[in-house]
Fold this protein.
Amino acid sequence: MSPQAIVISIITALALIALIGWARKRRRAQDRLASQWTRVEGEVLDVWQSGMGSYYVRYRFTPRGSERPITRDESGGCLKAVLPEVGARVPVRYDPETPERARLQREGC
């Protein structure tokens, strides 16, 4: 095996290890989010694509015990294949201590 092939193999292996570590960390964070944050139903207000090709979703929800709705913009991320439509009801999770900290609940992401 040539020195170049060895270097490429090592770089590829390191990249895969880093990717697996990142995926596990993200999964743990999502599990923590699911268990500690409060789930409510939100409404999609707008969906758009930025000039860089990223998708964004604007949604609003009302935290439990509050009369004031909160509106947030969030990157569509892994929702690209299944972006919600305007007016759709979507599950939202929020931090009960700081309701402005909220995320769309995404299945399979």
